[in-house]
Amino acid sequence: MNARKKESFFWDKQRETVSIAELKSLQLAKLRESVGFAAEHSGLYKKRKKLSGHDADFHSLDEFSKKIPFTTKEDLLTSELYENLCVPKKELVEVHSSSGTSAKPVYSFLTKQDIQTGSEYLARTWHMQGIRKESTFAMLASYGLFSAGLLNHYAIQQIGAFVIPIGGSSALKTLGILGEFSVDSCAAVASYYPYVIALAKQNNIRPNDLGLRHIIAGGEPFSENQRRYVEKEFNAVMYDQYGLCEINTGIAGECAEKNGLHILADYVYPEIVDMTNGKALPEDQEGELVLTTFHKEASPLVRYRTGDITCISYKPCPCGRTMPRISRIKRRVTDTLFYKGIKIEKPYVAKCMEGLRDYLNPYIWQMELNSDAGRDEAVLKIVLEQKKGDNALDHITTSFQKNFDFKIKIRTFTADELARLGNSKLKSFLDNRNK
Ligand SMILES: [Zn+2]
């Protein structure tokens, strides 16, 4: 594996262009191993899911889907700290936790082998998205417990690129480093790029003068309009990437075709299931993504419900890769809030925001639901376009009033709040009503 050609279109041609029949037979063999391993070593699967060695005795992918129970986030949240640990604790070398979209973190433990294997697979995604040994790469996602920093860092170093671990630095410092080192590629949560652009402009820096060429965004859904905006401002290509802390970052990514994300289907087994009855769905049908890990010895997961809505296609991609593609994640099962009996869906709010792009920055917003002395109120926080006059706020308020069947207060983010948002994932919905 290390004696790699100097410059190749593929990171690992053999694996990336494997036939679907071969891939499916590999998946079946790996699934049997994964189920057997979890049934033998994990308290969570042995005691709670009642899995035994016999359960690994299935003969088709279909049988696997019908026979093996799901693992949910709730299962992990209610587990003891080491309940799913499958190796002696002394084998652990690292831990990561979810970025906090739920109240309690979910931990994912890693052995040295987990990191090595993960990096080798993940490098494939980064290579596909233009990272090479010659690249100067800035990791803008947070380090620390958040898996996007360190785990991606290892994978990019696997390629041999020069990695600058900017992590949680202030956006202003980030801008300075991007310029100073002539950074040509970077990764961050999608909503961070509009901030960097806004800040660059405030400081009289033209974003496209920075020389970025490959921009990778993950961690949250973003619209095609947002992509076009970031690409135009930086004069760069922006690729979507998908991963989750419970399993690994960068397990799927767009190729240059930008028509779905190739998922590392020999590293995880992807299934799409009906959200309501849990039945496995055929190709091209939208449902919840469910994943089983093949190569995680410390914290394996079997049929883990990700909460992300997508569909999968095994049709050939013009780029030549045979790994199936999942459609871009546009929403999560939890992207919905109920307020005064009305269902508020994130894509709908995002669409309203885009309709007001002349007045506000459509990509930076947060809806907050508060309860004050038993009275609920909805507040939408936004960033105004500087060019527009005083009546912009009135116009926005009237427009939202028309689109929503309830009263909504509009207010702008304070400079302080904006600075604090930094490069963490911006929660679109903040429900403070039961706190
Ligand atoms: Zn492709």
Give a written overview of the molecule.
The structure is a single chain. By secondary structure, this protein is an alpha/beta fold. It folds into 2 domains: 1-332, ANL, N-terminal domain (Rossmann fold, 3-Layer(aba) Sandwich), CATH 3.40.50; 336-431, GMP Synthetase, Chain A, domain 3 (2-Layer Sandwich). The protein has helices at 13-16, 20-41, 43-48, 61-67, 73-77, 112-128, 147-159, 171-180, 192-202, 224-234, 346-355, 392-403, 415-421; strands spanning 92-97, 107-111, 136-139, 162-164, 185-189, 214-218, 237-244, 248-254, 261-263, 268-273, 287-293, 304-310, 312-313, 325-326, 331-332, 336-339, 342-345, 360-372, 375-384, 408-412, 429-431. The protein has a 9-stranded mixed β-sheet. A hairpin with a 6-residue loop joins β8 (248-254) and β9 (261-263). α6 crosses α7 (147-159) and α8 (171-180) packs across α9. The model has no long low-confidence stretch (mean pLDDT 89). It binds zinc ion (ZN).
Describe the secondary-structure layout:
Blueprint: H1 13-16, H2 20-41, H3 43-48, H4 61-67, H5 73-77, E1 92-97, E2 107-111, H6 112-128, E3 136-139, H7 147-159, E4 162-164, H8 171-180, E5 185-189, H9 192-202, E6 214-218, H10 224-234, E7 237-244, E8 248-254, E9 261-263, E10 268-273, E11 287-293, E12 304-310, E13 312-313, E14 325-326, E15 331-332, E16 336-339, E17 342-345, H11 346-355, E18 360-372, E19 375-384, H12 392-403, E20 408-412, H13 415-421, E21 429-431
Parallel strand pairs: 3-4, 3-5, 5-6, 6-7, 18-21, 19-20
Antiparallel strand pairs: 1-2, 7-8, 8-9, 9-14, 10-11, 11-12, 12-15, 13-14, 16-17, 18-19
